[in-house]
Design a protein that fits this description.
Layout lengths: L6 E8 L6 E8 L6 E10 L2 H7 L16 E8 L11 E4 L2 E3 L5 H4 L10 E2 L18 E5 L4 E2 L6 H4 L5 H11 L8 E5 L3 H12 L3 E6 L5 H7 L4 E4 L3 H6 L4 E6 L8 H4 L2 E9 L12 H4 L4 E4 L5 H13 L6 E4 L4 H9 L6 E4 L1 H4 L5
Parallel strand pairs: 10-11, 10-13, 11-12, 13-14, 14-15, 16-17
Antiparallel strand pairs: 1-2, 3-4, 3-8, 3-17, 4-5, 5-9, 6-7
């Protein structure tokens, strides 16, 4: 049974591995002294939402209300809140709690805290299961609430709270944010198209790597990529061997990474941010001969996420979205499973949630 809290909430939830979402009444905790309550206006749909509602990772606690990239307007603040006030625009990303005292937390890397609590589908310290942004209201500790830049659109900006920080953080951490750096981006989906925008804003040369040429024109003419590489073309892959300083691999489907390692220079880096449900094959000789690195990166801490939002606002970076009504969400999930979206679905929660019941 769900924990009963005093604040009534309404959203859409999946109740079994079919992943079908339908109206759901639940509750949020009362606004504590350091809490922020806000009305949810827009929520992006992440590929991990699809994985969670279908229990692809084997850890889904049903019923589950997805959504970890959502924005809205503050309606109530606790007595000790200093960061935002009623009426401010705010956002919540992938996490809502951490221990605040471990090495990772003290280094502003709450996303790697062993006690980090995800925005939905996790157990909160109060014993309840967290619910996400496919809902009308949210209550979160102010530490995990992001201030929304005035120049950043709410709808197209919402996916940055996951897709944005997931790609911005490794670009920064691994030194791929320098002008003249050659960055490869594998996959031109929700994460990949944002990675291209950030890398270009940093001044990098960007090559998009995809399985077919179907997105070449869009990658170069619309997103500003410098080159396009078809990974299934051996001649193109061989011609590009050893030319990239780093690659951001955004693909969540099972795929070969050895051809990608061949593309990076000696001492180059392949950073995986997608989450395939099966292990990848890796031959260490390919790493040894060029002192190459295969690494991973998962979202970012709160300080860096705020930095990312401010950078995006300054450089006019937002996701390319398809805005949908709440009652279209199941169709959107079916389309997402087929990669039929350019490039991120965003739910118009504020205008369509109540009408969808």
């Amino acid at each position: 049974m769900a924990t009963e809290h005093p604040v009534k909430a309404f959203g859409w939830a999946a109740r079994d591995p079919s992943g079908h979402l339908s109206p759901f009444n639940f509750s949020r905790r009362a606004t504590g002294e350091k809490d922020v309550q806000f009305k949810v206006l827009y929520c992006g749909i992440c590929h991990s939402d699809l994985a969670m509602i279908k229990n692809e990772w084997g850890s889904t606690p049903y019923p589950i209300v997805p959504g970890h990239e959502f924005v809205g307007v503050v309606t109530e603040v606790g007595s000790k809140v200093t960061k935002v006030k009623v009426g401010d625009k705010v956002g919540v990303g992938c996490l809502v709690e951490s221990c605040r005292s471990c090495e990772m937390c003290t280094e502003d890397l709450e996303n790697y805290c062993p006690k980090m609590v995800l925005t939905y589908g996790n157990k909160h310290p109060d014993g309840s299961i967290t619910y996400g942004g496919y809902s009308d209201i949210m209550v979160a500790d102010e530490h995990f609430v992001l201030s929304w830049p005035e120049k950043l659109p709410l709808d197209a900006g919402a996916p940055l709270l996951c897709a944005g920080i997931t790609t911005y953080s490794p670009l920064r951490h691994f030194g791929l944010d320098k002008p003249g750096t050659h960055v490869g981006v594998v996959g031109l989906g929700g994460l990949g198209h944002v990675a291209v925008k950030f890398a270009k804003a940093f001044g990098a040369k960007v090559t998009v790597i995809s399985t077919s040429e179907s997105k070449k024109k869009e990658a170069i003419e619309k997103l500003g990529a410098d080159a396009f590489l078809v990974s299934r073309d051996p001649e193109q892959m061989q011609a590009a061997a050893g030319t990239m300083d780093g690659i951001i691999d955004t693909v969540s489907a099972v795929h070969a990474i050895m051809p990608l390692i061949n593309l990076i220079k000696s001492q180059g880096k392949l950073i995986c941010v997608g989450a395939p449900d099966k292990p990848v094959e890796l031959h260490t000789v390919a790493l040894l001969t060029g002192r190459k690195t295969v690494s991973g990166s998962c979202i970012g801490g709160l300080k860096e996420t705020q930095e990312m939002l401010d950078f995006a606002a300054e450089h006019n970076i937002a996701a390319d979205i398809e805005l949908i009504q709440m009652d279209y969400v199941n169709t959107a999930m079916e389309r997402l499973a087929k990669a039929d979206v350019r490039y991120r679905f965003v739910i118009d929660v504020g205008n369509t949630l109540s009408k969808s019941a």
